[in-house]
Amino acid sequence: MPRFEPFRGLRYDRERVSLADVTAPPYDVIDDRQRAELARNDRNAVRIDLPVDEDGEDRYDVARRLLQEWQDEGTFVTDEAPTFTIYRMTFTDETGVTRHTTGVIGALELWPPGAGEILPHEHTTKKAKSDRLDMLRSTRYNLSAIWGLSLAGGLTDLLPTDVEPDAEWTDPDGVTHTTWTSRDADRNGRIATLVLDHPIVIADGHHRYETSLQYRDERRIVDGPGTAADLTMCFVVELVEDELTVQPIHRLITGLPDGASLPVLLSEHFDVEPTDPFGPDAVARLVELGGLGLVDDTGTFVLRPKDGAFDASVELDTVRLEQARSALPAHDLSYQHGVANVVEAVTEGRAQAALLMRPATVAQIQAIAHGGERMPPKTTFFAPKPATGIVFRALD
């Protein structure tokens, strides 16, 4: 089983700065406009996690320099002893229900995905890894945590969330972030032991995990095994319904030949029925109706899988759609989160059609991971996304 350990975190000194001002969304969901807005605070984490060239200085050198400067001036402080960071995100979903995700940030031992008890849960799309690898080489820090799901029953109950938090703030998207620093060695030992005894499913950050493996192997050539690079920073959440919000990632279709009718083409695999336009409750409606959603310039439809059209063991919309797409004329597929976003793409003519998915369930994620299989790319969207800047981890 992979080790899961507390570590001496590098943190913002909260007497100098407010985490509300210096934390940022994950680097891979920030556009140029949002980055510029965040960087107006000259100590915001976006300046090291998503750096830009400055005055002829390479962006990776900028990140390394700022990390050191902020430590030297006291903006950052280092834990006196190894700690776990307890972290909760609370938000209201599209239907008005309040939800939360509670987990623990620690250091997870790196094993190849699928080896032992590190379980990937879906295939990944091709994506350049060189940027994050260059960042690791330059800064020698884990700047953001991957997201792991633990099959350890009772993990949430071990996390000390019934005491005064270290920090709490609400971001512009309405997500409330709450953090606690766990310094109690006995409790930390029990957390580490419980996580150690159960598999970890990689939920988010597959590319960063694989990049960390590559960096570990590079370091081993020079330093041998047994360094901090043998582990990576990980946000571990118990794999239970109460602590996870699993949202679907919808599909946009473009490039179909003129005259191609998706309601007709997809009728080989689905019963296609007109339905009312999709609003914020679309996903819940589709779960109730027992099918996928389709929006094109002819209307709005629900697609119910036909008996015998799919393998009886297949329950995921994304798997069924991949099979049905194989019979379609040549086309392009892209991914989009959010019902309003995909409907708008069709309405504005940026896509010929939108296919709305139902979310994978926690039970499906568990079963597929244990079976050694993977879901199609972009099957799950775990929301909300953990903020960057809560804690950093040194690799020296």
3D structure, described in words:
It is a single chain. The protein is α+β, with helices and mostly antiparallel strands. It folds into two domains: 4-245 and 382-394, no CATH class; 250-356, Conserved hypothetical protein from pyrococcus furiosus pfu- 392566-001, domain 2 (2-Layer Sandwich), CATH 3.30.1760. The protein contains 13 helices and 21 strands. The strands form five sheets. Strands 1, 4, 5, 6, 8, 9, 10, 11 and 12 form a nine-stranded mixed beta sheet that branches. It starts with a strand and ends with a strand.
Key traits:
single chain; 396 residues; alpha+beta; Conserved hypothetical protein from pyrococcus furiosus pfu- 392566-001, domain 2; 2 domains; 6-stranded antiparallel sheet; 21 strands; globular
How much of the sequence is in beta strands?
A: 25-35%
In helices, the fraction of residues equals 25-40%
Low-confidence stretches: none
Distance between the terminal alpha carbons, to the nearest Å? Answer: 24 Å
Q: Please compute the radius of gyration using only Cα atoms.
A: 22 Å
Taken from the alpha-carbon principal axes, the silhouette is: globular
Question: How many domain units?
Answer: 2
Summed up, the helix count is: 13
**Sheet/helix structural class:** alpha+beta
Main β-sheet description: 9 strands, mixed
Number of strands: 21
